[in-house]
Amino acid sequence: MERTRRLIADTAIALFSEQGFDATTIDQIAAVAEVGPRTVYRYYPTKEALVVHFAADTLHTALEELRGLPEETPLPQALYQVLDSVRRTIEGDSERRIVAFRIVYRTLSLHAELRAVTWLWRESLAAEIHRRTGGRTTEMAAALAAANIAAVMELSILEWARSGEPAAMTLAVGRAVELLRTGDVPMPTPPM
Description:
Blueprint: H1 2-19, H2 26-33, H3 37-43, H4 47-68, H5 75-92, H6 94-106, H7 108-132, H8 139-163, H9 166-182
Helix pairs in contact: 1-2, 1-6, 2-3, 4-5, 4-6, 4-7, 5-8, 5-9, 6-7, 7-8, 8-9
């Protein structure tokens, strides 16, 4: 089952890379993967899902790793582990993920799909942050922490994709976390 799912995703990414996202059909993907179109749809309900699943799987893995950490893990360390999980997943599969990223970058219809996946993940991350603090962190503070993690992740992935260097993501995460830690990120201030 997982083998078929991966075969379909690998086939789709290869065809998208060769022919372009819009020019590739589900029937072509099915034919090259040697499965029926219904099998493709069973695993991926839309063509967009074939690309977006790379991000969704990465985010899901990071959240599950956070949930698996011991409760006594300090929250800042636990949140860093979320970023590190994303980095490890991307570095461990960088060839397919760079193709997926470039397809998303060039295809407007995928932007909305990816934003929806990221939004839902951020909400789940905020809920886990709130839970791990035993409710001592307000829901808004937890949501802001999750938004920061998502922003660091997105900017670091963009840096990695632009450079093509696997180490670029690690460096970008480090720079972004340091900017947030030191307060060097400008914050809005209401007028007096």
